[in-house]
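Hypothesis: this fold can be encoded by more than one sequence.
Test: take the structure tokens below, design a sequence, compare later.
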């Protein structure tokens, strides 16, 4: 097992640890308005964990998970979060002006 850890890049290990630790405040402060942000951040955590997991086994599968589900999924989720927030602000602005 100690030999298996030598194949990991220390920066990737730190990235996964910081992402997992950062997930706690995101989940604790979850609100319905922030559901897409939470989903996007969770997908970034999946990507960080998959980056490290691909060094151990199923490299191609975890690479697909990292890039497909993790990074691309987080981009889509953050785009939806921005769209939803924009709609909310425009609705509030329209109701305030009427």
């Amino acid at each position: 097992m100690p030999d298996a850890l030598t194949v990991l890049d220390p920066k990737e290990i730190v990235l996964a640890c910081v992402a997992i630790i950062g997930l706690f405040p995101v989940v604790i402060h979850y609100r319905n308005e922030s559901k897409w942000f939470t989903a996007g951040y969770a997908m970034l955590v999946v990507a960080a964990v998959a980056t490290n997991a691909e060094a151990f086994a199923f490299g191609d599968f975890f690479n697909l998970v990292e890039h497909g589900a993790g990074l691309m999924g987080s981009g889509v989720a953050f785009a939806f979060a921005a769209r939803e927030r924009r709609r909310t602000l425009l609705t509030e602005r329209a109701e305030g002006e009427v």
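The radius of gyration is 18 Å. The chain has four helices and no strands.
Hypothesis status: open.
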